[in-house]
Design a protein that fits this description.
By secondary structure, the protein is an alpha+beta fold. The protein is 42% helix and 16% strand. The strands form six sheets. A six-stranded mixed β-sheet has the order 1-9-3-5-2-4, sandwiched between helices. Strands 17-18-19-20-21 form a five-stranded mixed β-sheet. Strand 14 and strand 15 form a beta hairpin. The longest helix is centred in the middle third of the chain and has 25 residues. The N and C termini lie far apart (61 Å).
Amino acid sequence: MAVERTNRDVRTLIKQIAAGEIMLPEIQRGYVWKASQVARLIESLYRGYPAGSLLFWKTGQPAETREAAIGTSQALPSVMPLYLLDGQQRLTSLFRVLTDHPEAQVVFNIETEAFQNQSAATRRNRKWIKVYDVVGPDADMFAIHGELKGAGLALPEPEIGRRLNALQKITQRDFHMEVLHDFEYEEVADIFVRVNSGGRALKTTDLALATLSARTPGFLGQLEAESARWAEQGYGALNVNFLIKALTLSLSTTGTRLASVAKLTAASTEMVETGWEKVQRGLARVVPLLRERLLIPTTALIPSLAALHPLILYYGRQPSDARIPREVENGLLYWFLVATARNRYGGATDTTLTQDIRTLDADDPVAALLGNLGIREHGLAVADSDLSGRNHQSPYLMFCYLAAAHAGATDWWDGGPISATVDQSGKPQYSLVHPATKLRSHSSKYSSTEINELANIVFVSEQTAKNIIGSRSPAAYMQSVGVSDRTAHAIPDDPAVLEAAGYRDFLAARRMLLAERITALLDQFRPAFLAAAGTEAKTRAPRSLVLAGYSESGRSVLVAEAEADSRSWTGWINPGDFERALDAASTGIASDVPVGDDTAPLRVDDEGSVTFGLGPFIIRGSLDQWRTAVKDAFEDAQPLTECPEPTDDQWPGEPTEFLISDAGVPAS
């Protein structure tokens, strides 16, 4: 065995990828970089910064591979390929940029030397040029230079030429390469795990996949086939990572990365096969239950897929022909609904999963699972206050959909079931009953939090939103909607609340209707040993978090306003800094984000959950939830002149956990 050390320039590496001389082994994860990360890579090469080394494996035996996300098919290699172990994100990004991939349209500002992804604004500005136009095979530097001379640049001609030349030379930058020769597949997988569990840590599922691929080449194909099966039924989020997590849980309930990977490593091929059969058997029972009993058409409605794992493992442990008593089936679905309403898996999930999975061994697993939720005598009642201030990020979005689906609600445009309004991405379509344009211009000065409340959301198609609702108040269009369908969608029948002036009364009335419907839905599945639901007493002072965007003259500020223990706190965050920190988190890297004159830690765990410390809270959420929260904050950005002043002092005492899905909602 030997390790060869050499260097190769970017252009050569790209040609080798196209020729199939560099391929991805099955143990590799998928491509995950965001456009902003690609732009920063190109900037690093432009400025001559270190871009890291690459690790390859060369063997005389063909290895299982996975398709590279380069947007084109690789040629059949004329020589034995190099298998890329470390550097996939960088090389894939470079290939995309240098082949004009539609999702890698990086542009360069010749005047400021800034890089970003192409946008409508950069297309209109002649100072921005596409990197591909400079480094591509058909680049016409003379023409580009001539166009830039007429763009009104505050740069001398020689400097324009120097910058264009520096940009063109990024394809000549060398990468240091290390090539492993004649290592066995299992040893290569172990090296892969070690390399990728440092500063750019892989998730537990990625490490587990590497271990499984080494032990059973071709196993990835089985996972992808199973995932594709459920994607065809609307359950696209049951992807390879989800399936790997289900498998690791079937073999180990300790919930830590080392234990899961170690368990897989120690497991025999027969044990892995048995565990995989349990996962498949569990899915075959659980998905139909969710679709047919609960009427959930898509995983996009389920706030946390982690809540499915106990159900999958329970059914997976049963023989294929086992008949589960109706009361047990109802009880398990009731637990799933209550766990979702309680946001049981909204925070750190491994410890919670371990607790719930171990509970499956109890004599009465339904009672034991509900006991983990603190439900032992009375069922759960949803009050109108539980829906107040919540938006589409809330777990209650699923319940609002289910309330309509179980009432037989249809789309107002074509009369089809609301399950048919799920779009191509697998997300349910919805609109605002009271359009935002009407509410924002009203003299009552409705806030963005009020406008985007769950109680203002109705599950209808894009055609309904455009052709029936438009920008009109419900008082103007509700006459075209049948009475029975208004009732099914829980629309209040008081004409006064359908006018913009009565919007707050509309929210109050619809919250009550939705809360009653959701509680009735829960009661359909409530086990007989639980009494009718009661209202829980509030025992703690309210806590709240509101994120708002302020923007003016090219400057933007993300403001976090928090309240806890009868004290308030306000912090200012640069949205650019925060976006870069989220990009880093997507690759497993922690950051310290400037907040006013201080910094706040942004951390990511191996399950992809991101925490950010702000004032009284450690705020937890997924990357998608964080990105959506920031996008929502700037959807109705306010002028900087109205921005509240930040708090000078640090928060006294220890911060407590707060879920990003509860942002904008007083919590107790």
